[in-house]
Amino acid sequence: MFFAIKNIINKLPSYISQAKSSTFSKQRKSSLNLGSTEFLTQRLLFSFSKMDNQQNQDIKNNQYSQPKRLGERDAFVGKWLKMKYIDFEIRGKKIENYESIERTTRIKNTPYDGVATFAIIKKDNQPSKLIIIANYRAPVDKFVLEIPAGLMDTPDLVQNAIRELKEETGYTAEEQPLKVSNKESPPTYTDPWRSCSCTKSVFLEVNGNKQENINPKQDLEDAESIFVHLIDIDENITDTLTTLAEKHGYIISSTLWCFAQGIQFAKTFQV
């Protein structure tokens, strides 16, 4: 789209020149009486229509061919991650040494790497709250507000979600996950331009009245430092996150922010 708009803008002087020429039709010349802005708008709309028709024809003629993977090789292999060079062909042109990052920990025959746990805690006579964490992330040297999440240890998605929630927050979730959709979460990608890493999502409920959830105790790994926060699920949820971040010097993960924006949008506009 950017190149199409740029092409139209580059041709504007030509359109104006045509409008002033004797070969321009009377009907199109008459549009000049509406003023230059209206004339240029008409030309832009006409050009966009022409562009769409050409694009449809290109697709029909299969000029937009499916990119083809030609090969890949490891550049570096670590304990948790590896860097790869990928060669592929797109529109007849060979692209070499595209840099990509991949996890080394994916379970065989499992098309995703981890699970994100959206957990709601409920207590008698209190509003439900969302369980989030502030997780220290060495690459940014800050605590990041996130949804509890982790890598898959076994192929059982729900049990991995329950385990990650327990380890990172200390809370024990109910065995039966909350059903928010008729279908299981698909693998979702945060940054597919550089990595094939992906996760599935699970929604869990925590009974805050149970003894085990009154004074929950985390079970963190050596490289983990995590603070737990319970936040209201309302039309001010993004304000809650930004206030929390400003107060403690946190930053916010895109996954949590987009989830919160979805909640706030739905509650604000009642959709």
Describe the model.
This protein has helices at 2-20, 26-30, 36-60, 157-169, 237-248, 254-269; strands at residues 68-77, 81-90, 93-103, 114-122, 129-137, 142-146, 149-151, 188-189, 198-207, 226-232, 251-252. With 271 residues, the chain is of the alpha+beta class. The protein has three domains: 2-13 and 24-54, no CATH class; 68-103, no CATH class; 114-269, Nucleoside Triphosphate Pyrophosphohydrolase (Alpha-Beta Complex), CATH 3.90.79. Strands 4, 5, 6, 7, 8, 9, 10 and 11 form an eight-stranded mixed sheet that branches. A three-stranded antiparallel sheet has the order 1-2-3, with no helix packed on it. Helix 1 (2-20) packs across helix 3 (36-60). The longest helix is centred in the N-terminal third of the chain and has 25 residues, at 36-60. The chain is globular and about 75 Å long. The model has no long low-confidence stretch (mean pLDDT 87). Residues 127-233 form the Nudix hydrolase domain. Pfam families: NUDIX. GO terms for molecular function: hydrolase activity.
